[in-house]
Amino acid sequence: MSETLVSENQSANSTENSKEELESETKQFNKDEIMKVLEIVERDSMAIAESYTSLFSSLRLALSQVTSSSVDHMQCFSDAAGRIQESALDAATRGNRYINSCLRLNEQMKGAENLAMQLKILRRNVDVLDSAVNKLVRLP
């Protein structure tokens, strides 16, 4: 019976040792796998971070170009608007001069109508005078 106890004890110890070794190997295996997975995650994270850095750099450059183009466009628009305003003021000034010249010409034409009327009257008087002189000169 004592041999049976020893053999059962050895068998129990052996089973416990096997369990401990298996657990130890499993723990080691899990640690190694976890480290590998962590390394992969770290590499992927670095790659993603670099991608984001590149993306933000590209976006920053694109935004800078768009902003620069917008500033150039606004400057061009401002210049064009200024030129249009100058041209409109110049055209309005010339239009006012034209209108004033037309008004002066109209006033002068009214004076010319009076002169034409006076000229007609003068012409009649000259014709009457001419007729009178012709009658006087033809007298025998």
TrEMBL record:
Region described as Disordered: 1-26
Record domain BLOC-1-related complex subunit 6 C-terminal helix: where: 35-130
The organism's place on the tree of life at top rank: Eukaryota
Compositional bias (Polar residues): 1-16
Annotated InterPro entries: BORCS6_C
Basic and acidic residues bias (residue ranges): 17-26
Name of the molecule in the record: BLOC-1-related complex subunit 6 C-terminal helix domain-containing protein
Native organism: Aquilegia coerulea
